[in-house]
Every structure is written in structure tokens, then in C-alpha cells.
Amino acid sequence: MSGKNTHEDRALAFRSARKEDVPYVVHVLADDPLGALRERDEDPLPESYFSAFEAISNDPNNDLIIVECNGERAGFLQLTIIPYMTYTGRPRGMIEGVRIDKAHQGKGIGRELILHAIEKARSRHCHLVQLTSDKKRNRAISFYKSLGFTATHEGMKLHFKE
Q1: Which residue range forms the structural domain that includes residue 139?
Q2: Model's pTM, two decimal places?
Q3: Contacts of 116 (CB under 8 A, 6+ apart)
Q4: In this predicted model, what pLDDT tens digit does every residue of 128-141 receive, in sequence order?
């Protein structure tokens, strides 16, 4: 699925990621202090990234969305539609892995990308869209709050040892 949005002197386009986008995605994921600790931006990339991409792209409830600015990749996020029994069985949207590459930050592209994901979740009849952000990402948390997200729950994780 793709869409377009024009703001000022830039043209934004949204599309589902393709296999050739995987190295870009991994590079941008690894290009921040937290991502540098957990990603392997190598040449060649570990096959696990391509396996994950195939699983995402073959699942109708998942979309790795690329935003392009004037024809150049500028960032991405993953939107997952989760079936739920609550709220009369309506699904919810989960936004994960939001990244705008450094060359495109501060231009409003992240806001447009999130708004695109929200509309996509709404079009799938979701009753809400949710996301998490590492507590160390103060700027990201402020950004999400500016879009109307509220911290209504306390999230927890249990990491497995490899």
C-alpha cells in the first residue's frame, strides 16, 4: 500500500518495504546509541534480518512502512494489526521500530509517518493504536505525547538469554 503527502517543498510517499530495503532498515536501526548495542549492521547482513523481513511481508497483519522524501528513503516503522477479544473483538494497531534517518530528522517526516500509520490502523477498524518507547528516549516520548499518545499503562519485558 502506498500513499502521498506534500508539505512545503517536500513530497512524501509511503510504501511497504521491499527486500532491497532491508540493509537500509538495519543501518538506520543501528545508527543510534541503543540500536548500536543490539543490531548487526554488517556486510553481508545476517540472514536472520531477511527471514524476519519475509515473515513480516508475508503476514497480512504486518507492514514495514517506508517513508520517502522527494524519492529518497527517509525512515520507516512497523505496523502490526493485532486481533483482540476486548473492545467487542476489535483489533488494535501496534507501532514499533519507528526511525527517521539522521539526514531527514527535524523536518516533520516522523509526524507524517506516524499519522499515516494511525490512519492505516483506523482503516483496519482498530479501536486504538499503541506504541512503546524506551524510557531513555525522552525526545521520542515527548514527540509521541505531542501526537496525542498518553502513558496509560506500565509496560514490562522479559528478555531471553541467547
Answers
A1: 3-146
A2: 0.91
A3: 3, 5, 14, 65, 67
A4: 999 999 999 999 99
